[in-house]
């Protein structure tokens, strides 16, 4: 007999209802892999899909990044942020509807974590804070996949969180046999996500286990904590997540850095309210 873990893994991964990514992404990924492709060609391929491009540009111009001037073309966005970040933004806009339907407050929680991760990465002195923020944006994607694939357990999960006053993470473990971080690993492979992004998604609850990019796992771990501390959106329960002190060592953050991060978030979290990738 199949155990709970394998049975649920199969159901989660049945391709039937997995969120689909825009077809243009396939073409673009091929272009990116070819060293002869130019940024121009890649930008053109993405721009074919006008609705998608508008959504991606709206994300690029959101308070998460705070660029001083408006970025109005995909070409410019690619030069500024790089393809990996743009790919992450394409994914986030593609799952936006599913995410808002799956869990009340999860979109806001994800945006908050993206903003917090960028702020933390900047304080830690990392040169591409946008790469960290896109990992923050997608960190709880596995929660969405569960609800899309197994809608019947949504209520069971919520009830267990309420009844036992446990975290959503622990409720997933109890009911499914694994949590969303495991699902993030499967979906990252399925969508062929860059390793750095994958590590942020997979190890945001257990940053010590990240082997290749502990920096991004630590940033998202702390970003998730901050987002919950400031009560931005909802990750499925009201608890402030456990904070591993280990992250301060890896990120070399001192008290003064932490104060700067808190000040910044205090100012900026409110700017996210009501923001969506869709046109107004
Ligand atoms: Fe999580
Ligand atoms: Fe989270």
| Anisotropy-based shape | globular
Distance between the termini: 51 Å
Q: Rounded to an integer, what's the Rg over CA atoms?
A: 18 Å
What ligand molecules are bound, each kind once? fe (ii) ion
Looking at the structure, the CATH topology is: Hypothetical protein af1432
Task: Summarize the main sheet.
Answer: none
What order do the SSEs take from the amino end to the carboxyl end, as H and E? HHHHHHHHHHHHHHHH
Give the tally of β-strands: 0
Number of helices: 16
Question: Looking at this structure, what is the CATH superfamily?
Answer: Hypothetical protein af1432
Give the helix level as a range of percent.
55-70%
Oligomerization: single chain
What average pLDDT do the residues reach? 93
Beta-strand percentage range = under 5%
In summary, what is this structure?
The protein has 280 residues and is an all-alpha fold. It is built from 16 helices and no strands. The site of one fe (ii) ion has 6 residues, from helix 7.
